[in-house]
Amino acid sequence: MHVDPLAPSDSGAPPDPAAGALWGAMGRPAGPFDPWQSFNAACDVWSGGHADAAGLARRARWRLHDLLESACAAPLHAERLRAAGGASIGDPGRSPSAARRAAQLPLAAIEPIGRAATLARFDEACTDRAVTLERVESFIADPARIGEAFLGRYAVWTSSGTTGSPGIWLQDARALAVYDALETLRFGGFDRPGRGAGWFEDWLRAPFGTAGRYAMVGATGGHFAGVASVERMRRLWPWAAASMHTVSILQPLRTLCAELDAIEPAVLATYPTAAAVLAAERRAGRLRLRPREIWLGGEQLTDAVRREVTEAFGCRVRETYGASECLSIAWECEHGSLHVNTDWVVLEPVDRAMRPVPPGTASHSVLLTNLANRVQPVLRHDLGDSVTVDPAPCPCGCAMPSLRVEGRRDDVLVFEGRAGTVRLLPLALVTVMEDEAGTFDFQLVARDASTLLLRLQPAADGIARATCHEALRRYLDSQGLVDVRVVDDPRPPMHEAVSGKLRRVASGPGR
Ligand SMILES: [Zn+2]
Q1: CA of 401 relative to ligand 1 center, distance in Å
Q2: Residue 119 burial (C-beta neighbours within 10 Å; 0-12, 13-18, 19+)
Q3: Which of 167, 417, 420, 494 is spaced 20 to 30 A from 85 at the CA atom?
Q4: 388 to each of 295, 341, 357, how far by Cα in Å?
Q5: Which residue blocks in 359-439 are alpha helix, DSSP H?
Q6: Amino acid 5: pLDDT
C-alpha cells in the first residue's frame, strides 16, 4: 500500500478555483493554481531528483496504476484498457473493480494512440464530463483568455505537432504544479545547488534586477503551451509580471530585434531556428542582446546551431524537451545531457511497427505517458519525435536516463527582398497557415529566392486555397517580400523517403 501525496484528494474533484483567484492579477481571471498541490509537488520533485533508479521506478509505478485507474472515467481510454485486458477484467468504464484490475495491466499491452484519434473523440478522451470540445473551442477562440483557467480549473494548450495534426490538451492543477516544480527546481538547477546547473539560482539571489527578466520568442496569438504558460505566470504572480515577456515571431526581424533589445532579458527562450537567425543578427551588430542563458526547444537542436548560438551570444545554451501533452519531459544537466523526468513521464522509443528500440538507436517515434495529468490522460501517446537514448550513464550521476531528440526539422526559408535577404522562420509560416488560413495539412517549399510553392491535399477546395494565398500574401508583404510569388503546386505534401516525416516548411530545389 502506498500513499502518493500528489494523488488527487478525492475521486477527481476539481481543485478549488478560489485558491487561484486569490492570486488574480489586475482584475483578470486567474490562471489555474493550487497552493497545496504546488507545495507537495515541490517536495516530491526535490526528493525525486535525488532518488536512485529503483526509487524513480517505484514512483513511476505507483503513478501509472493511479493514472490507469482514473483514466477509466474517460470512455475512450476505458475502451483501450478493455481491449488491452480482454474479457477477463470486465468493463473498466462501468465498474470500479474492473478499473482497479485494468490499473494492473502492463503498459505495453495498451495500443498506442495518436493526436488525430484523440481529437476526433475529444469529449470521450477527458475524465471530467463537463469538458466538451464545443466549450473548449469557444474558450480558445478568444485570445484575451490565453493563460486563464478554463472552467475555473484547467489550463488549455493547443498544438500542431510534428505530423501536422492539431491537438488540444487540458492540464489540471496537479499537472501544472508538477511542471512548475520540474522547471524551477530541476531544470532551474535549484535542487542541485552549487553545481552551476541553472539560472534560477542567480535569480533567487537578485530577483528584482535584470537577472529576473525573461523573454519568450514564439507564436503569441493563440493558446500555445509556451505563451499560455507565461501568461498564466503573469496572472498568478502580478509582482513579477513586468519582468516576463512574450515576443511575437511573426513580426519583421528588424522590429523583433528592437523589441528584444528594449527588454534586455537575462533569459531568452525560443526555437533553435529562431535562435540561429538571431545569432546571425547578433554577429552583424543589429542585435545588442546579452542574455545569461538561452533556452531552446520545440525543434531539433543540432550541435552546429548550439555552437553558433553559444558563440554569437557568449552565453550558455540549454535545451529543453517538452510538448503540449506534457510541458516537462526532460531537462538539461550541467554536462549538457537531456535527462528524462522518469518519475513523472514514461517515454518509450519505438520503431515504425511500434516495437521498442534499444538505447543507442534512433527511434521512429516515441510514446509518451504523462503520469501527472488526470483530466485528459496521455497514455502511450504517439508523439512523432525521433529520440535516441544514451547507452552510457551521464557523468553527473543522475539516475534518470538521458537522450537526444530529433523533433521537427523544418527549414528556415531565404528570399531576396527589395531591401536585401530576408529569412522566414518555419514557426512563423506554420502559424500563418494554421491560425490565419486554418490549414494544417500543407507544405511550403522555397523553390528559389523569389518563389514559394504551396502544396495542399487534393481534397482542399478553391476557397481553402484562396485563403492560404491571402494569408501568405499578407505575411510576405509584411516582411518586405512583395516580389516573392506564391505558386500552386498540384502535388500533395510529400514525406521524406527515409524517415517518412513531413517537413511542412522546406527549402531547396528538387523538393
Ligand atoms: Zn547529467
Answers
A1: 9
A2: middle
A3: 167
A4: 21, 16, 9
A5: 426-431
A6: 47
Cα of 338 vs centre of ligand 1, distance in Å, is 7
Mean pLDDT of the chain: 87
Which positions ≥6 away from 443 have C-beta within 8 Å?
453, 454, 455, 492, 493, 494, 502, 503, 504, 505, 506
Angle formed at CA 71 by CA 105 and CA 373, multiple of 5 degrees = 115
Q: What is the pLDDT of residue 301?
A: 86
404 Cα–ligand 1 center, Å = 12
List phi, psi (to 5°) of 244: -110, 120
CA–centroid distance, residue 174 to ligand 1 (Å) = 27
Q: How far is the CA of 332 from the centre of ligand 1 (A)?
A: 7
**Domains of the chain from N-terminus onward:** 169-402 (3.40.50.12780), 413-507 (3.30.300)
Residue 109 three-state SS:
helix
Instruction: State the distance from the centre of ligand 1 to the C-alpha of 470, rounded, in angstroms.
Output: 48
| Integer Cα distance of 75 and 72 in angstroms | 7
Tally of helices (H runs) and strands (E runs) in the chain = 15, 20
How buried is residue 100: exposed, middle or buried, by Cβ count under 10 Å (0-12/13-18/19+)? middle
Please give the pLDDT value at position 117.
92
Q: How far is the C-alpha of 436 from the C-alpha of 471, rounded, in Å?
A: 6
The pLDDT tens digits for 287-342 are: 999 998 999 998 878 888 899 999 999 999 999 999 999 999 999 998 999 999 99
Q: From CA 170, how far away is CA 187, in angstroms rounded?
A: 23
- Distance (angstroms) between ligand 1 centre and the Cα of 339 equals 7
> How far, in Å, is the centroid of ligand 1 from the Cα of 331?
9
Dist CA 140 CA 222 (whole Å):
8
How far is ligand 1, taken at its centre, from the CA of residue 397, in Å? 6
Give CA–CA dist 24/148, Å, rounded: 10
Q: Cβ(427)–Cβ(443) under 8 Å?
A: no
- 294 CA distance to ligand 1 middle (Å): 18
Alpha helices, DSSP H only, in 252-368? 253-263, 272-283, 303-313
321 Cβ contact partners less than 8 Å away, ≥ 6 residues apart:
297, 329, 330, 331, 338, 405
> Residue 275 to residues 261, 270, 317, 504, 506: CA-CA distances in angstroms?
15, 7, 10, 19, 18
13 — pLDDT class (breaks 50, 70, 90) = very low
302 CA → ligand 1 middle, Å: 18
